[in-house]
Amino acid sequence: MAANDAPETPEALRARLVELRVEHRDLDEAIERLTLAPPDDDLMVRRLKKRKLVIKDRISALERLLDPDEYA
Questions:
Q1: Which of 58, 45, 56 is nearest to 8 (CA)?
Q2: Which of 52, 53, 57, 67 could form a disulfide with 27 if both were Cys (CB 3.0 to 4.6 A apart)?
Q3: Range(s) of the domain holding residue 44
Q4: How many folded domains does the chain comprise?
Q5: Cα angle for residues 10, 29, 70 (degrees, 5° grid)
Q6: In a domain, 1, yes or no
Q7: pTM of the predicted model as reported, rounded to 2 decimal places
Q8: What gap in Å lies between CA 23 and CA 57, rounded to an integer?
C-alpha cells in the first residue's frame, strides 16, 4: 500500500510487478556470474539468493492481487 494507506491501482501494481521481475532476473544473472567465478567468500551469493527469494514471494503476492481467480 501507499504511504497514505490507500490501495494501489492495478496499473501501479503491474508497474511494480515489472520492476520486481527485472530485479529478479538481474539477481539471477549476478548469481550465475558469481558462481562461475567463485568469490573467496560465498556470503554474497547467499545474500543474493535470499534477496531473490524475497522478490519471488513479492511477485507471487502481486500476481495474486492482480488476478485472484487464477490462483484460487
A1: 58
A2: 52
A3: 19-71
A4: 1
A5: 30
A6: no
A7: 0.76
A8: 13
